[in-house]
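Re-run with default settings, no changes from the original entry. Doing this only to confirm the output is reproducible before filing.
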Amino acid sequence: MMRFVFNERKAAQAASILLERAGGSMDYLKLVKLLYLADRAALIETEGPITDDHYASMKHGPTPCQVLELILQEHPAEDSIWHRTVKRQYFDVFLCGPVESEQLSQANVDLLNDTYETYGRLHLWQIAAVTGGQPNPGPTRVARSGRFSHPDRPDRHPALRRLQRVRDRVGDRQRRGCLPISRVSSASLVNPGDTFFGFDKRGHLWMVLTEENANGDVAVANFTTHDAVSRRTCSADCLVVQPGEQPYPRHETCVIYERATLTGNAALQRGADEGVYDPQAPLTRELLERIREGALNSEAPEAVKAAIRRDRQ
């Protein structure tokens, strides 16, 4: 059985070639798929992979575990070669600058370029189908556990455990029959009034307040429980919502406008598609307008107020 030792520098240089061909950025899952295809081609043609990574069988096909772990790391080591080369923001990875490729042979470079020429312009889910994963699965349910399964127990690998923690964030809502952790074409967070969980670590329900602006951003704000503790910290302009005004939650809540912010709509939609964000029932038009009106008369950030004003023109 062939065993390889992962080469972080070589993997970073391989990723930099693919990212450079893509204009400097791409979806991180697409990057790992392209690296797998390049490794597969290298094994066939040169009897050795490019990254020397360990692969696990996952829903969308074989995935390089060490590369995935590096991409998902929140607190990388200061001397990490990968993180000096590639940075992640939400679901995209970016090339930090020109990178030497001294670790790669000319055959490696040619295979990486050939891989991009063949697959680089395909949609992520088309590539997943090519690699043996499930293409865009549509609105189907997943197992109650939502966990990876593989005879070699890849869930023991840190990268897969990290992904599992993301899945577990919405596990309770999955068990209640909400959206699965999979790309669901019907899940949408692009309209004012749409609501979702998963935007913060405290389990708040967030809402979209505006249409997408010229920069691709939307304004979002969150509900929080309006109890004895929160009343002491609520500002005078917080808007209280009673049970029954919104399907969820079922207790008195409020909107604290000073926490409102702008966020990228594309990243928001990607989060819904990937299961990081869990869409819920939308706000009624009346409640949305009351919340937007309250924002204009509150201590909400000026950028949020400006987005609401533009939306109402």
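The longest helix spans residues 28-46. The chain has a mean pLDDT of 76.
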